[in-house]
Design a protein that fits this description.
The protein has 2 helices and 4 strands. With 92 residues, the protein is of the alpha+beta class. The chain has 2 domains: 36 residues, no CATH class; 51 residues, no CATH class. A two-stranded antiparallel sheet has the order 1-2. The chain has a two-stranded antiparallel ribbon with strand order 3-4. A hairpin with a 6-residue loop joins β1 and β2. The protein starts with a strand and ends in a 19-residue tail after the last helix.
């Protein structure tokens, strides 16, 4: 299951490609993207989908930090402790 690069920014901030969906619904995340987001085997990724806007895949630690920041902004949490590494559990 290869991929085609359509556009790659020289600063490595953006990466666009196409990927093929395998018979079991699997896709291969290109190495450049795995490197960019430090995705390793065994990491948990969160898939978000909205019928009119598409599909997104987010590393769980990024979603955790985003959620804590959002909760802090709306007064639902104070001084969140961010996850540095995937798989790290928040401190209590």
């Amino acid at each position: 299951m290869g991929h085609k690069k359509h556009f790659e920014n020289h600063k490595k901030k953006h990466f666009f490609s196409s990927v093929k969906v395998g018979i079991k619904g699997q896709i291969v995340i290109p190495n450049e993207v795995r490197t960019m987001f430090d995705i390793k085997p065994g990491d948990t990724l969160i898939l978000v989908a909205e019928e009119d806007h598409g599909i997104g895949i987010v590393k769980d630690s990024m979603m955790y930090n985003f959620t804590l920041n959002l909760m802090e902004k709306f007064g639902m949490a104070s001084k969140p402790e961010k996850m540095d590494d995937p798989g790290d559990e928040p401190s209590t």
